[in-house]
Amino acid sequence: MGKEIERKFLVDKAKWETFKKDLKAEKVQMIQAYIGRTALQTSPVRIKSKAGKESAYFTIKGNTKGITRSEFEYEIPVADAKAMIAEFCSKHIDKVRFTFDFQGTTWEVDEFTSPKAGLILAEVELKTENEEVEYPDFITQDVSTDPQYFNVNML
User: Fold this and answer.
1) Smaller CB count within 10 Å for the chain: N or C?
2) Where does the source fall among the domains of life (predicted)?
3) What would the mean pLDDT of 110-122 be, rounded to a whole number?
4) Please, which contacts does 14-22 make with residues 24 or more away whose CB atoms are closer than 8 Å?
């Protein structure tokens, strides 16, 4: 069974802008929508665009307990993802994701363009809930357990 252990943080925009100037990061445009949501799980569909190439993923995420949840992710045809979003989703999230290494840990920073234009969140996946990592200086507040910052609640 797949597990996701993730911390999520608010970002100081000015410090992030300075940090990313010289950053060698993977930059990906993302569309994310939810075709299913219950009290026990969410089912996002994502389309990622990088350098003109698209890929798509369907994920089933279990209910979060602390900062841990079950996660199963599958690559699917882009045409299927587009059809699923068109058929089942009235709203979606647009964001740009930057992925990079900092002090031996992979970080993802999402810059939201809609519906929460201007919001910037940083995420780090951990091996255990108690794993210690070094934080970049643009990290401000841990919002890992604040439901308003779960992507599914932004729609």
Assistant:
1) N
2) Bacteria
3) 98
4) 15/137, 15/138, 16/109, 16/120, 16/138, 18/138, 19/136, 19/137, 19/138, 20/98, 20/109
CATH topology of domain 3-154: Hypothetical Protein Pfu-838710-001 (2.40.320)
Tokens standing for residue 83: 């059809």
3-state DSSP: the chain helix, strand, coil percent, rounded to 5?
Answer: 15, 50, 30
Q: Dihedral through CA 54, CA 58, CA 62, CA 65, nearest 10? A: 0
Who contacts 64 (Cβ-Cβ below 8 Å, separation ≥6)?
145, 150
Q: Length of the chain, please?
A: 155
DSSP code of 109? E
Residue 101 scores a pLDDT above 90: yes
* Domain spans in the chain, listed from the N-terminal domain onward: 3-154
5-34: average pLDDT: 96
